What we know:
Layout: E1 3-5, E2 11-13, E3 16-18, H1 25-38, E4 42-44, H2 52-64, E5 74-79, H3 87-101, E6 108-111, H4 118-130, E7 137-140, H5 144-153, E8 160-164, H6 172-181, E9 184-188, H7 201-210, H8 214-224, E10 228-229, H9 236-243, H10 252-259, H11 275-282
Amino acid sequence: MQYITLNTGASMPMLGFGVFRVPDKQECFEATLEAIRTGYRLIDTAAVYTNEDAVGEAVRAAIAEGICTRDDLFITSKIWVKDFTDESTADKAIDASLKKSGLEYLDLYLLHQALGDYFAAWRALEKGYRDGRLKAIGVSNFYPAVLANFCETVQVVPAVNQIELHPWYVQAGALANMRDYGVVPEAWAPLGGGRYALENETIGTIAQAHQRTPGQVMLRWNLQRGVVVLPKSTHAERIRENFDVFSFTLTEEEMQAIASLDMGYSGTRIKHFDPEFVRSCLGTSRISR
């Protein structure tokens, strides 16, 4: 495992295990426990994933098996935008995440979207950071202009910004922006959501040269850019495969070839600007423009 140092001084694993779209409790529990058995120490969940409890159960099971201690693990969750109403509501959401997971603290807690009154929610996260419930705090889906304004305004600069990062959405400008503020980049959908990966000739050729899978090459590419990656799978073989990305290195030419696949946009990102999507997040009938 490789680690990266956060602005809090804490060490964060650069390879994690994501549980997005694994709402079934038993399936999430089994997949998370298998990931910890494999060697993953960073687990990424969220309130809106509705599986914080299953992750907590897997953590306790792994500790009971003697695989690891709680200090060995780096557990991340996120507060959803419906709890951005005010500081008090956000503070209760933090406690709800802790209660659901059955954990005394979270190693990292993120604002899930830059929607609603996220400044009020952030003040609650700052409070949780200061009182020890949250060992580090950060954001997710904060793009450059929003992140810059945020970092210049808040008292505690985010430790992490989790955004979409993969060969078809390289986001070099976003990475440079994060470096300027000392914010660690973390990739959701590091495999591009499965899009094009298996059939892409460039990635396929590089994978053959290293006797690796296209997925392993894509994860390695982001790791070498200094990006924390969060692959997700519920299949034991794929969980183990995604973990085996530290025993080979891509050349600079290969890194550039993969970066050249950049489309410069993401269909996933478009929803963040869609009024109906925003309404569904905030639970309101109208949006102030």
